[in-house]
Design goal:
Layout: E1 5-10, E2 16-22, E3 25-32, H1 35-42, E4 46-51, H2 66-75, H3 96-107, H4 113-117, H5 119-131, H6 133-136, E5 139-141, H7 144-152, H8 163-176, H9 180-190, H10 198-211, E6 217-221, E7 236-240
Parallel strand pairs: 1-4, 4-5
Antiparallel strand pairs: 1-2, 2-3, 6-7
Length: about 250
């Protein structure tokens, strides 16, 4: 049946990892070459896709999006995981020096290397959503750290790549869903043969749990997201019984 999958997608700096839930629970795990590849694979079957790619970009002026600012406020020690994306024009530049020059000219601030490292995926997602209205209606931005924060009910303490971070995130997922541990194992096994980290697996599962219908409302930071010059929302989606921020 079309439109019955709820998908979490983590793209990082390259290929994407997707975890999908269907009406009966966990459905499958898939590796995609890009966000465009993911959309091609899910355009007929996905009701909602949550991605860890910035959607809704600043053209010029203050480069700090309100959604990112609010996320850093509620994440506590993990606020460092949220970066300010490049201005739209800078995402199309291949060299850091060029992208930084454009970003500084448009925003008055220096472009972080973390933001530059994600610019190709950001540009691809931006182009997809601007050119394909059907995709813009299904694909929304989230952040794994925000999802974990919402599930845990309090800020997490440790970075995702550390042993403490793994234990913290697994505990959070198991408290949210008692079947989370075997699910994570199935997702990890499905990535066999690919260069996928355990942290990426946990992040993708957290996004997928957030995407699927469940207890708690699907909420956004901010609660009434603004849109960018292309009409795309500047928001971060999470699932919780009560809002994480009073704004």
């Amino acid at each position: 049946m079309a439109g019955d999958l709820y998908v979490g997608v983590v793209c990082g700096d390259g290929p994407c990892l997707a975890v999908a839930f269907g009406p009966d629970g966990y459905d499958h795990t898939k590796r995609c070459d890009s966000i465009g590849d993911c959309w091609s694979g899910y355009e007929e079957t996905a009701a909602r896709i949550l991605v860890d790619i910035p959607i809704g970009l600043v053209e010029s002026g203050d480069p700090v999006r309100r959604c990112d600012e609010l996320a850093r406020t509620v994440l506590g020690p993990r606020s460092v995981a949220v970066f300010d994306p490049p201005v739209r024009e800078a995402t199309r530049k291949r060299r850091y020096s060029t992208a930084n020059r454009v970003h500084e000219r448009k925003s008055g601030q220096e472009l972080s290397e973390a933001a530059f490292a994600r610019r190709e995926g950001i540009a691809m997602c931006d182009e997809l959503l601007r050119e394909v209205p059907e995709a813009a209606a299904v694909v929304r931005e989230s952040h794994p750290e925000l999802c974990f924060r919402a599930f845990a009910g309090e800020p997490l303490e440790y970075p995702r790549e550390t042993a403490g971070g793994y234990a913290e995130r697994m505990r959070t997922l198991v408290n949210y869903d008692r079947d989370a541990a075997p699910l994570v194992q199935r997702v990890a096994e499905a990535t066999d043969g690919h260069d996928v980290t355990v942290a990426d697996v946990l992040d993708t599962v957290a996004l997928a749990y957030t995407a699927r219908p469940a207890d708690g409302d699907l909420r956004t930071l901010p609660s009434e997201p603004p849109t960018d010059a292309a009409g795309l929302p500047m928001e971060l989606v999470y699932r919780a019984e009560t809002p994480l921020s009073t704004e």
